[in-house]
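[stage:ingest] chain + small molecule (pyridoxal-5'-phosphate)
[stage:ingest] validated
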Amino acid sequence: MHKIEPQPGIMEIDLYVGGKSRLAGHDEVLKLSSNENPLGSPPVAGEALARAAGDVHLYPPTDHADLRAAIGAVHGLDPERIICGVGSDEVLQFVTQAFSGPGDEIIHTEHGFSMYPILAHMAGATPVCVPEAGRVVDVDAILRAVTGRTRLVLIANPGNPTGTMVPEGDLERLAGGLPDHVILVIDGAYTEYAEGYDGGAALASERPNVLMTRTFSKIYGLGGLRVGWGYGPRSMIDVMTRIRQPFNLSVLQLAAAEAAVRDRDWVARCAALNAKQRARLIGALREMGIACDDSHANFVLARFADEAQATAADAALQRDGIIVRRVTGYGFPEGLRITVGDAVQTGRVIAALGRWREGV
Ligand SMILES: *Cc1c(COP(=O)(O)O)cnc(C)c1O
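[stage:predict] done
[stage:export] tokens:
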């Protein structure tokens, strides 16, 4: 007798928990729990969506040629080395599924994105968690953890929920220090918020073992649309494309993403707003005695004295209709990850925490 059994690893998966969006007793909540863009999405994306709505009886192109050409033109990358997915999550799934399986190891780090161990289990591989050093990805610890079974290393730069970046030069050292059989995936979901950073594009251009992933969910404000992309060596992209469903992106997704990526003014404007409000929020938190690192993303990790303080601050924010993210599952029971909002929203957060601090 054979029983119906799931593939190895699947039952090890703890379901991903997203940011909350509702609060009992509040009609108008301020949601700062999912790193969404306070300005929404670029108007050109909405216009492209409306135009494409007339085409939904047609199958979309399978090769994503127009979107890849637009991404390539904007970023100075070879479109033949770009692959597009349903969010960067799907691109991460392509690379983990195509290059690892049962018996293989996938390295992620202590405070890394919670999708990484999930992706490892989806592929049947074993996630290996490596410590960070002071909330920063530790390149030497990763290199020490590599074994003959390691197939991939997954890191986000800037990191989520830390907002920190790997020190300059270390990414290169990591890529160069990994054995030939190991792929380094640099998840650049927050690249546009990190001044002067290319997301790993140069490394992915030059190295045979580096894949960069990017998303339309953050600075483009299109998280609800689900589009992301990856850039890497042609041979790697070719392998990944074989397991990509031919119609993974709809005509709506393709049209809106293409319009959005060409809107460079939008990116500049959102990055400038974020930098200003992020500095303001960090300054205010530190003034209140709440610890936080410099952030290179569109969120700040506030670290309270202990878990009870974080719980109390979270409750106070919720009483004021503000939802932020608990990050206990990321190794920060004492932390709250707060998405950087616009000027008014940031003012609300600072005022709410200030009142809590004063005990009023
Ligand atoms: C938000 C985020 C993403 C984006 O995921 P999508 O599937 O593109 O929406 C990827 N990586 C990290 C670390 C993130 O925080």
